[in-house]
Amino acid sequence: MTHHLNAADEGFVARLAEALGPDAVRPAEPRYLEEPRGRYHGQAAAVVRPDTTEAVAAAVRLCAGARVGIVPYSGGTGLVGGQILSNGPMPVLLSFERMNRIRDVNVIDGILTAEAGCILADVHAAAGEVARIFPLTLASEGSARIGGLLATNAGGVHVIRYGNARDLCLGVEAVLADGTIVRGLSRVVKDNMGYNFRHVVIGSEGTLGLITAASLRLYPRLAETATAWASVASPADALALLGRLRGALGGTVSAFELISTQGLEFLAETLPQVTQPPAMPGDWRVLVEVDDGPGGNVGDRLEAALADAIEAGLVGDVLIAQADAQRAAFWRVREMIPEANRAIGAISSHDISIPPSRLPEFIATAGPMLGALDPGVRINCFGHLGDGNLHYNAFPARGESRDRYEPIRASVSRAVHDLVHEFGGSVAAEHGVGRLKVADLERYADPGKLEAMRRLKQAFDPLGILNPGAVLA
Amino acid sequence: MTHHLNAADEGFVARLAEALGPDAVRPAEPRYLEEPRGRYHGQAAAVVRPDTTEAVAAAVRLCAGARVGIVPYSGGTGLVGGQILSNGPMPVLLSFERMNRIRDVNVIDGILTAEAGCILADVHAAAGEVARIFPLTLASEGSARIGGLLATNAGGVHVIRYGNARDLCLGVEAVLADGTIVRGLSRVVKDNMGYNFRHVVIGSEGTLGLITAASLRLYPRLAETATAWASVASPADALALLGRLRGALGGTVSAFELISTQGLEFLAETLPQVTQPPAMPGDWRVLVEVDDGPGGNVGDRLEAALADAIEAGLVGDVLIAQADAQRAAFWRVREMIPEANRAIGAISSHDISIPPSRLPEFIATAGPMLGALDPGVRINCFGHLGDGNLHYNAFPARGESRDRYEPIRASVSRAVHDLVHEFGGSVAAEHGVGRLKVADLERYADPGKLEAMRRLKQAFDPLGILNPGAVLA
């Protein structure tokens, strides 16, 4: 879909400032135009920073009237360029940083109502004050904001138990592309009063509407936690272990992360100060966490279930954290893997999901496939095995720079994505499409789904002013 | 939105039969034109019964070409007239009864792929064969079919733990109003590859697209279950009890149903053969169920948590089921309440949800409010307290017939709905809008949400052939 947009010029920025107040409109400092991986560099005539929903609507109406593109800006932590527009008519950035109020916390309802600009860590803290948790947990929680987390339907390590961002939200308040405000901060779990609008705008990456606030679900902060390393010979054994643990421990498994020997080696090489798990038989490690209420006896139950798995030949060895500090050290290994990856320097990174039953075959196939492109390529494959969501990253041979691999980078990426598609998976599992995967979406999506997507875009943003060029070209 | 539709005449029915085969087109027997509460009586030129997705698409294309309305027909158990079109140009019914194959069951992925016409009880059985459950559980499970359950985003007694129907579905295959097939039977939990189409069509009651198949989530069948009656003095105490149990028992609480003394009296009066729970202090009963894996020790833990609640003065008395037969007897009380209600004969029934924190005040306000309309009115209020979803039904005074109340029936309904709206709740919690609540939706919905809904309808069914008159007038 091609839309004709106009560049935001000085006169337009002045009109925005007049309408919203001078505090609300600022020059676009460089930090708004960069992104974590440094692949995209943005442009913007100004940063618009409304502090109310009505001000967001006023800004959007002005942009719609002038046909000026809006790039919604949340925490800026996205990895697929959704927050960065590099070319085309000059847009404005619309940042939610001043809409950062927690409007309400209700323990009986289990609802925290947050504005789009609230930082995830602040939402965690507010939930903690009433002995609850908001389960969305990911590496960028100190910077990521609620609006962006919902717009991208963020994932993280607790999806296995609590679901994706969309599952943790009961309602949204949002502004449509013509400035219409949709007020839908529902506080009830069951509401079939007409079509579900929140699920349309959640995950649309700011291209169908702008989320200004959300009612978020809180869960009890559970008294008992048990965390363990388990070693397994293969991803297939890791999956079998997960099946056993789910049967044995009910719904209490709250994390199940896969880590490879390669990942631990990268960590040892680049971040030697991180305490490694002890040597264990088997090429793969699983970090498993279980939570329950008091008397749930999770430590003993996890230990018994893991002992059964050793007995069954499924697990090589296990280590159960004996104290909070040790638990934190286990998690630090997992959390530092992406940093080690950045230090090594990936040729190509992939945020993929595969139906779990096909993951072992995928891993067994993808390695040799990339080896055929270049025998030195090293793979670090890790992540949220329970969701079928792995970060599948290709790295240079030891001692080589990734520059040497620039000629095969596109081939590596294409080969991985083609294989994911062949295996019935997704090449945009938890990070979204942004601008990085627009062509992948065109290539891999079902034609009927693409048709449905185009109709949604036409229905909600006929002028194409919302995040131009993201998701759909 | 007014659409011009044509009546399906004999010639059109003949063309359908020619295109789909004679087996696929039948006269509309009376059973297709009735609904459980007897309020609506339908009309249809024929029942079209395609047995493949392609045949559904062919039928839809023919209807679109002739501008003939399609009433999707699933199990016929809906309570809001969504499956019944009484007036306007003669439509065809499109029944999914021949699309009743379970296409695939995969234990590792935790996915069962079912066609729209599969009966819920058959899906339960297929899940049971691999020691899994599909958690959607409701009274009509012997007749309700997957397509209708998803189209109405059905609820039931396990929403508190497992979510609504939409939360139990990872993907759909669907036919749009122009015959476009959307193939989206995803098997992965994390997939942000573009807009989420399944959530658009789920809950749209057949007005935005026709679901032909779905990938459904399976969960482990847990080894331990504990079920108890607890008596409380008030709904507020019931909510406080739920908060305690959730904190104490982690995520294992799988049902929490509220029943009033009035409900038990109706049951005693109309179904004396049903074994009642023992007399207990307090006007309200809660039926609570907890499930966990082996070693979860759920019976002891539930008993301890309930003992604490008695100690705290929150609970009058408790009775924990000692065997499966007793558990079944407990549940039979809950399941027979709607049948007792039918035997008494309601003046007006309401499927409402209220933010739990406001439920006690709602119940305290609504009773006297209806009493002011007629002092003899009896209230039976029961249901899924943990979700804030109650069935709030008004009945005649003892010995009176509901005919006498016909003059105030509309006032009762309006007063209850106005109060629900004032309390921030929904007047269509788990049964949907259908045709019964079209005016309520217009009256209570946020104008921005209604605008968004109209855009969705225009985008996906511009001719208005899909379930004409349902959801949106």
Tell me what the structure shows.
The structure is a homodimer of 473-residue chains. Helix content of chain A is 34%, strand content 20%. Chain A is α+β, with helices and mostly antiparallel strands and 473 residues long. Chain A has four domains: 10-97, Uridine Diphospho-n-acetylenolpyruvylglucosamine Reductase, domain 2; 102-220, 2-Layer Sandwich (Uridine Diphospho-n-acetylenolpyruvylglucosamine Reductase, domain 3), CATH 3.30.465; 224-342, Alpha-Beta Plaits; 345-422, 2-Layer Sandwich (Alpha-Beta Plaits). A seven-stranded antiparallel beta sheet of chain A has the order 15-12-14-13-17-18-16, sandwiched between helices. In chain A, helix 11 packs antiparallel against helix 12 (406-422). At the A-B interface, helix 5, strand 9, strand 11, helix 7 and helix 13 of A face helix 5, strand 9, strand 11, helix 7 and helix 13 of B. Chains A, B: This is FAD/FMN-containing dehydrogenase.
CATH topology group of the largest domain in chain A: Uridine Diphospho-n-acetylenolpyruvylglucosamine Reductase, domain 3
Largest interface in this structure = A-B, 101 and 101 residues
Q: By helix and strand content of chain A, what is the structural category? A: alpha+beta
- Taking all Cα atoms into account, the compactness measure Rg of chain A is 23 Å
Distance between the termini of chain A: 7 Å
Number of helices of chain A: 14
Widest beta sheet: strand line-up of chain A: 15-12-14-13-17-18-16
